[in-house]
Structure formats: structure tokens, C-alpha cells
Amino acid sequence: MNTNLLNIVKRIVAEQGEAVLGDPARLKPFIKSYAQTVPQDERRAFGRCVETGFYRRVKAASTAEERRRLKAELAAQLQKATEMNGALCSGAVDVLDAAVPLTGSRLAQDGALPASGQIPAIPRITKRTLIFAIAAGLGAFAGTLVSRPLMSGITRDSLGLIISIGLWAGLMGLGISVALIAAQTFYLKKKFVIGAVIKSALIGIAVGATIGALAQFIYNFTQHISPAIQVISRVICWGLLGWGLGWGVSFYVPNYPAKRAMLAGLAGGIIGGVLCVTLETTAFSMLSELMLGFVIGLAISWVEEALREAWLTVIWGPKETTTISLGTKPVVFGSTAEADVYLPPGRGDVKPPPVRAVVSIENEQVVLEDRAANRRSVLQNNSEITLDRLRVIVNMKH
Question: Residue 192 CA to chain centroid, in angstroms?
């Protein structure tokens, strides 16, 4: 089995959903684009394996024993239909088999898992998650650099320290908030909306200044108790900073419930606070603020992707996809700056209408309102729609 081809297929499944293995027309351009380094005969064998409809048969036979029996049968069928080398046919079937996970209930019969439920999916750290994390880290670091010269002229008594740390945390919160909204805008290829940036900046600086001042106020008392209490109180305060920043993120990330965003920010702030306190005692102290912002951004984005029930995969090209969550807020496609997904100009630089289409959840159904065609339709899991130059796929967990 070609492990390089398997890794490529797994990447495509991760980005497009497992059902892409049952849709040869949809899978073909991704294989052609991603698997250029794979020998052509191996690509062709896998393509014929998919075209023959083996995915559904492999998916249906989901115990280890059934899979073992089926693979030899499918490889023989593929060799007979294509007259390809037997090893190539077996390798193609092996790749397909490895890319289709066994369900939890069937694995339980093989003694691998308890009988109840399915295998819990471990959420991946995606490109979007890393973009958010890196942006938040850089935003925190930039805010810290700006704050240091401003802090130098403030007295070092108890009140002065509260003001100083409040200023530092406020500018760090400002940097994180603006960086996160910039990351969201970049990821979805949107236009910057000044009002959203200003709102995010105000939330960031207000939350950061409040939490920073509170942290120093508490520290003024805890520093005389014990070193452990000092550290614990600081970590809790950084958790509260993440909590507030998570609340701010929920305003501009579509369909991110505020409570979930705040809990994610709280967790990220606590973890980042532990790293921050640890790094401050080492030669890497200059990286502590960057690490704090990185972990907050990572947690907020990771939780949003891990717990969402439905989302859209927007395909901009063979190697470029983005995702956007579905929920109570409709997802707007169009050329207006307020659109959640900005549609690029069509042929001849024809600009799409301000609102080209709207996708929403109504009565637990995903509904497309295509305003250009003046029609509404109910979408299913793996439904694919075309909006001008974009392809959009619906993804649902249930």
C-alpha cells in the first residue's frame, strides 16, 4: 500500500468529509491536484476503485473480519475489470479500506471498544485553528511591546502598579482582539469592516484592562501569603482574561455561542497563564505574552470547530478550502463587506449582488435561499451548491 497516497486521501477526507470517497467526480480534481508525486498507475488504480463504487461496500462491511474477507474479493474484481497488476489493485483497495474508519459499535464486536456509542472523533488542529493561534500570539506580543514604554513613567507604588498592569493587559487584550478579527477576515477572504474592528478593539482593551488591574489588585494581597497562592491567583486572572476575550470573539465569528466561546477562552487563558508564569522564570520570558495569546487563540478556535454540529465547506480552488459554522445566524454570501463569505467578481469582473445567497437552519433543516435564482431549497449532508465561482458543501454531524 502506498502510504503517501493514503496520507493524501486522508487529508482530502479531513477537508471534504468522508462522503467524498463515494463521489468520483468530486474526488477526482483533489486527487489530481494533491497526488502529483504518486505514480500515475497507482492513482489510476485508486480512481477506478472509487469509480466502481467500492466505498459503499467497504463502509457497509465495517467489522474487521468482514473487511478482511471483502478486500480480497474487491481486489480481484478490480483486477478483472481493469486488467491491472494484482498488486496495484490490492494496494488501491487497501488505501480505501484504511481511509474508511470502522464504526464504534462494530469495533466493539471485535473487542476493541465498549459496545455503546461510536469511536469519539479527536478534533484536529486545522489550518484555521493555527491561523487564529498565531494571530492571537502576535497580537499579544505587539500589545506588550507598545505598553512597555508607556508603563515606564508610572510610579511603582501599589496604585501605580495596578494602573501599570491594567494598561499592559489592556493593550495586550486589544492586540489579541484585533488580531483575531483580522485572522477571521483573512481566512474567509472578507473585506475589513471598520465598525467590527472598533467594537472588537474596545472589548479587548476594556476586558484586558479590567482583568489586568484586578490581577494586580489581588496580587498586592496574595504576595504576602505564599508563592503558590501568588501563582494560582495570577493563573486564574489570565483565565478570566481569556474568558473575556472569548466573549468578544463570539460577536464576530458566525454562530459561535457566547457561553462556549467564553469557556474556551477561560480554558485557554488558564493553560496559557501556566505557561506564561513558567516562561517568566526562564530565559524565554520575552515569549510569555506571545505564548499566552497563542494558547487563547488556539483554544477558542479549536473548541468552535470541535463542537459545531453543522458547517459549510467553501471550496475556492483545488488546494484552498475554508469552513464556516451554521447556527442561529444565517450565513450570507455576497459582495457587501458585511457578508460572511465575500464572493469574488465573476467573468469580465462582473460584481456579484450585495447578497447572492443565504444559508440558514430552519426547523432543524439547512435551507438555501438563492436570491439570484429566486428559489429556496432544503439541503442535506454532503449537498453541494455552486455560487458563482465557489463550490460549497454542507456538512452535518448528525
Answer: 21
Query: Among 30-44, 116-130, 278-292, 304-318, which stretch is predicted with the lowest mean pLDDT?
Result: 116-130
**How would residue 61 be classed by pLDDT, with cut points 50, 70 and 90?**
low
Rg for the chain (alpha carbons), in Å? 25
Please state, as a whole number, how many other Cβ atoms lie within 10 Å of the Cβ of residue 32. 12
Q: 100: which residues sit within 8 A by CB, 6+ positions away? A: 18, 21, 55, 58, 59
- The pTM (predicted TM-score) of the whole model is 0.63
Give the residue among 366, 367, 376, 371 at the shortest CA–CA distance from 388: 371
Residue 186 DSSP class: H
The fold adopted by the segment(s) 310-396 is Tumour Suppressor Smad4 (2.60.200)
> Where do the domains of the chain lie?
3-109, 127-306, 310-396
Higher pLDDT, 291 or 26: 291
Contact criterion met (CB below 8 Å) for 240 and 217: no
Distance CA 19, CA 124 (A): 18
Alpha-carbon distance of 120 to 10, in angstroms, equals 17
Contact between 45 and 88 under an 8 Å Cβ cutoff? The reply is yes
